[in-house]
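Aim 2, interim progress. The first record below pairs a target sequence with its structure tokens.
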Amino acid sequence: MSRIAIIPARGGSKRIPRKNIKPFLGQPMLHWPIRAARGSGLFDRIVVSTDDAGIAEVARAAGVEALMRPADLSDDRTGVVPVVQHALREIGEGAEAACLIYATAPFLRAEDLTAGWRALAGASFSLSVTTFPFPIQRAVLKTPEGRLAMVQPEHAQTRSQDLPEAFHDAALFAWGTRAAWLSDLPLYGHATAPVEIPRHLVQDVDTPEDWTRAEYMGRALIAAGEIAAP
């Protein structure tokens, strides 16, 4: 039985055109998660699932496989689970487990993938998560009148340290057994083990502002020796 890494990398990103292969600190963005996956030593196969010939070429140049996926799995409304399912059915027949790795995860470390694999023992999924920097119970919304309203007003006077810590998806990776990926189990649920990632290693890369912030963070992390230089 084998383990495979599946990296979805669609060609049609709109807010940051070609972001999956745009140079990030000296090399295509896609190379960063590929390097982490290879460095972990966990995978028998590393596969980039794409609809774009240019992305496929970059993947192959990095020494991994490229799987072309159909148009109905390539629009901006397609979730990652159907993409993983397609890859498993196409090439992952013998895989005991698959790890979804996000293409825009430049700060992903091999040791985080290893922690995710270990957390999968006894679970159906394991998911990278990180903490919110502020208690979500104290969140506020802007009303239609342009004023503020608490989401949970009963916690208006509760001290931050007395509120439970909350987490969100770190958008780095998700491990799952083959059976779990091909089932209807929710990724966010009781069958999923959390893999906690420090907040300073987490950055969504969805907008040009995100990209700039990530580059600043990347330089600092390289200088601190937390991630390797390109």
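The second target in this work package is listed in the same format:
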Amino acid sequence: MKRCSGGKLSKSGYALLTAIVAINIFAIMILKARSMWETELQRDLEEELIFRGRQYVTAIELYMLKNGSASPQNLDVLFEKKFLRKRFKDPMTGSEKWNVIMRSPGISKDALLVVPEDMVPQFVSQATIIGVASSSTEEGFKVYRKKKKYCEWAFYIGEEEGKEMPELKFMDGSNPSSSDDSEESSDEKVDDKKPDSSGRGENIDNSSGDDEGTDERDIDIEEDGRQKKPGRG
């Protein structure tokens, strides 16, 4: 009887151990699947950031083409004047507020200014709006023109994708240099002074001046800025 009882207890113990192992394996698989899903979602958001950033650039080009090379005073006017079909949110933050890319030879001939949208009125009379960038300081999976942080992914008129990103001056006083930047770049200090000479009236490359709506993808975006998985046609 004892042997039989001992045998039954042994089988029950093995069954419990097997169940525990199976539960642990299942939990690991769930965590791995979640991690893969989050990675895929982040990559989709990065592609959406590039798409939306270039939509703003196209809208700015069309605005300048129609207004004698005068740049817009803000991003809202692009939507109000129908150069942009909607006020796209920054997909990395879910906010409609972007960092605005501006150019002013008064600060540096080769540098681009990165200005928080709320600060644009302080610069717009002396600098030219030429593009946008995300306000997120997070690093992405993708490296865009040798930059990892989303706030350093500048999309602007005259951008050359094959070349390294030009010097970026963050006019809010920050200096979120990517960890892969050169030692020289990471040691540079931000010059917070306002531009002191006119950067308006620059010539623009009108080669991409097609109607903004002609190359838009049919992407369904939730109001909070996160992307639904687009159906593949």
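Helices lie at 2-66, 76-80, 183-187. This observation will shape the mutagenesis plan for the next reporting period.
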